[in-house]
Amino acid sequence: LTTNLELHLDFLIDVWTVSEDQKKIIIQIFDEYKDLINDCECCLVHHDLADHNLMYDPERKGLAWIFDWEAMVLGDPMLDLASCPTWATHYPRKQLLLNGYASVKDLPYDYELRIDLYELRTWIWKIMFVIRMKFSDEVRDSMIEKLNQVLGRLK
């Protein structure tokens, strides 16, 4: 989760997306919670469960396939739940995913904090991606606003 964090933040500073002060705050947050980040029951995490990466079976009314595993990591299952606000979806699904997870296994007592930390990290790499791929300024600005919202929850 913290691999290349400083490098990614430096990139965002260079393109006037994140300030030096924001970088310091973000690094401080991840330093403060490093024990929590490293204390999890790891599993395979897709990390990009957007609609275009899922195929549904209309007969079974359920998920048939999951595609596009290039963002896959071994990590905390809360990472998939945390990244859902960053996906391109046709309907909001965060609560549905939380309910689904809780129907199989208890949510960790600190799941909300974990989700905020992981969402912050996900916004950082996704903003880098949209800048490098030359997406519109509107898309980038919307993502920066969402990064700042989650950062505000963690300060």
Query: What kind of sheet is the major sheet?
Result: 2 strands, antiparallel
Structural class: mainly alpha
Order of helices and strands: HHHEEEEHHHH
Strand portion, in percent? 5-15%
Radius of gyration from the alpha-carbon trace, in angstroms: 16 Å
Q: What's the total helix number?
A: 7
The counted number of beta strands is: 4
Unreliable runs: none
Straight-line N-to-C gap = 19 Å
Strand order of the biggest β-sheet: 1-4
Helix content: 40-55%
* Rounded mean pLDDT score: 89
By oligomeric state, this entry counts as: single chain
Shape category:
globular
Quick take:
It contains seven helices and four strands; from the N terminus they run H-H-H-E-E-E-E-H-H-H-H. The protein is mainly α and 155 residues long. The longest helix is centred in the C-terminal third of the chain and has 22 residues, at 111-132.
